[in-house]
Design the sequence.
């Protein structure tokens, strides 16, 4: 038995329609225009949007299965749960075909549940054990989500941002292209062609085994030294703007690197970084909170023969602990 079947059942019915994919995952105005052209009925008029927004504000029975009622609010909650990170498009803005695809998935789920109850699966010991585990996880997650919000302050976020700004001072980032091949001989041959005036972009498209960057002429964009494997980063940072390297070996193969530009490390604005800062700071604060609980709890750790053993209450990985002493016990 897998608890993950439920969202899969709904997703299979809700996301089978190509127009829904186009609408839900459109990221740019161009993509949105394409989706609307492909399925005009999926793009509601302003009047329709106003009507559905008004309807959505009032909860109502959207489905009845015999004596059982499914509320519109329940449908919307389940719909949002299908999209990680709160990125769900507005369910009420879709046309009837798409909406009924989703509702059929929900109705199918209810019918399966009813049959499972009739068969007595709610009394199955394995099922009850899994439900207890799931309940514990849901309760803990709700508690920790609220705790994380309370532990993080605006001052902490600004302090974390200022640390990043300070750390960026004096650092550079590089914009580069590369051509990746499997052997030193191939890399050397490409280097010779470049010396004779061959076009780097064309060679990257034709020769690079890194098909992702190769399709864009080897373009890697802007990066800092820590974002690349050491051999690649060391070679790239030794090059001046416009210079090209000889063969550089890494675990991926042999690279020919061309540095397009260099600049002082750019730090995004506080507003742009705020959400990522919240995640970073909340993780640190939650770790401190958990370590405090571990240290104040009366924890005993035993070997199989009943002897008490040392137990570390630190959540910091041993390799990163001060002094690197993996045996330290708090």
Sequence:
């Amino acid at each position: 038995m897998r608890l993950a079947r439920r969202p899969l059942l709904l997703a299979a019915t809700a996301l089978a329609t190509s127009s829904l994919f186009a609408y839900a995952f459109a990221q740019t105005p161009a993509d949105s225009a394409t989706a609307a052209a492909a399925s005009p009925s999926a793009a509601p008029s302003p009047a329709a949007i106003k009507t559905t927004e008004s309807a959505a504000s009032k909860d109502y029975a959207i489905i009845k299965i015999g004596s059982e009622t499914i509320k519109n609010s329940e449908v919307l909650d389940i719909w949002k749960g299908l999209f990680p990170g709160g990125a769900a498009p507005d369910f009420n803005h879709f046309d009837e075909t798409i909406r009924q695809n989703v509702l059929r998935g929900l109705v199918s789920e209810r019918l399966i549940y009813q049959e499972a109850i009739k068969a007595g699966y709610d009394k199955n010991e394995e099922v009850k054990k899994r439900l207890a585990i799931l309940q514990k996880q849901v309760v803990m997650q709700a508690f920790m989500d609220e705790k994380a919000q309370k532990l993080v302050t605006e001052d902490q976020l600004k302090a974390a941002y200022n640390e990043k700004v300070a750390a960026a001072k004096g650092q550079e980032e590089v914009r580069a292209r590369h051509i990746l091949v499997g052997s030193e001989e191939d890399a050397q041959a490409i280097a010779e062609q470049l010396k004779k005036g061959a076009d780097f972009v064309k060679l990257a498209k034709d020769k690079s085994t890194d098909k992702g960057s190769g399709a864009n002429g080897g373009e890697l964009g802007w990066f800092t030294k820590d974002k690349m494997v050491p051999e690649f980063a060391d070679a790239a940072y030794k090059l001046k703007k416009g210079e090209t390297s000889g063969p550089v070996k890494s675990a991926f193969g042999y690279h020919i690197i061309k540095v397009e530009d260099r600049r002082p490390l750019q730090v995004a604005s506080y507003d742009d970084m705020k959400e990522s800062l919240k995640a970073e700071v909340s993780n640190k604060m939650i770790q401190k909170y958990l370590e405090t609980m571990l240290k104040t709890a009366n924890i005993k750790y035993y070997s199989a023969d009943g002897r008490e053993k040392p137990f570390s209450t630190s959540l910091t990985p041993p390799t990163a602990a001060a002094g690197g002493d993996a045996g330290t016990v708090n």
Summary: The longest strand covers residues 253-264. The domain at 172-264 is CATH 3.10.50.40 (Chitinase A; domain 3).
